[in-house]
Amino acid sequence: MANSKQVLFQKRRLRVRNKLRKTNSGRMRLSVHRSNKNISVQLIDDVNGVTVASASSMEKALGVVGKNNIEAATKIGAAIAERAKKAGVEEAYFDRGGFLFHGRIKALADAAREGGLKI
């Protein structure tokens, strides 16, 4: 099978990343990874190759350990927006990877926008 789920996921992921690279104007990249149990997000400076801030559902301080729902994604989105402000970042590109923009991914992005991060 040429078009397995993994192949289609990789195609989507590369398509999103290449589009971000072409339109990048020095902004940071807000990269999201979602698994069946957890969701994590990183604010990455591609110019210097460093992670500026991150948040994950595995952090006990956020109080969402073990929850893989929209409520947990909302808390993580708010946390990354707060940490981005502390790092002095006002706007970033939203890199959803190969994940579709709905459900937990959408909830995380909306919460980050409400927290003051321009995506």
UniProtKB/TrEMBL annotation:
GO terms for cellular component: cytosolic large ribosomal subunit. GO terms for molecular function: 5S rRNA binding; structural constituent of ribosome. One of its GO terms (biological process) is translation. Signal peptide: none annotated. Keywords: Ribonucleoprotein, Ribosomal protein, RNA-binding, rRNA-binding. This is one of the proteins that bind and probably mediate the attachment of the 5S RNA into the large ribosomal subunit, where it forms part of the central protuberance. Part of the 50S ribosomal subunit; part of the 5S rRNA/L5/L18/L25 subcomplex. Contacts the 5S and 23S rRNAs. NCBIfam families: L18_bact. Belongs to the universal ribosomal protein uL18 family. This is Large ribosomal subunit protein uL18. The gene is rplR.
